[in-house]
Amino acid sequence: QVQLVESGGGLVQAGGSLRLSCAASGRTFSSSVMGWFRQAPGKEREFVAAINRSGSQTYYADFVKGRFTISRDNAKSTVYLQMNVLKPEDTAVYYCAAGRSVPTMARRSDIDSWGQGTQVTVSS
After folding, report:
1. Which residues have C-beta within 8 Å of that of residue 65, sequence separation ≥ 6?
2. What's CA 33's distance to the chain center, in Å?
3. Considering only CA atoms, which of 92, 91, 93, 110 is closest in space to residue 102?
4. In 61-82, which positions are buried (b, 16+ CB within 10 angstroms) versus exposed (e)?
5. Residue 64: CB partners within 8 Å, gap ≥ 6?
6. pLDDT tens for residues 27-76?
């Protein structure tokens, strides 16, 4: 099983950018589909983005298309989420996840590991 640690969260003004990182330990990173989720106060955890094992395919929730980019570096066992044009409604705790397939991850299914989360706050 892979262990995940997120970093890069913080406070940013609307329209600004942040890059989240998720460092993985364990030998299964390159064989895992990786993704990002977020959870705002009082709301359920929701899917944000996923990337396949090689990094050749990505999938995004509609509300982040064109603004967020997921990428991975298998040599560094790290997955990234570049977030641009941030909005106050993007405020949430962002979680990294390791799973088995992009379609099931998007349905929040077959998740093998979760990170502890990193807070992103966007001020208006």
Report:
1. none
2. 11
3. 110
4. beebeeebbbebebeebbbbbe
5. 48, 49, 83
6. 789 899 999 999 999 999 999 999 999 999 999 999 998 999 999 999 99
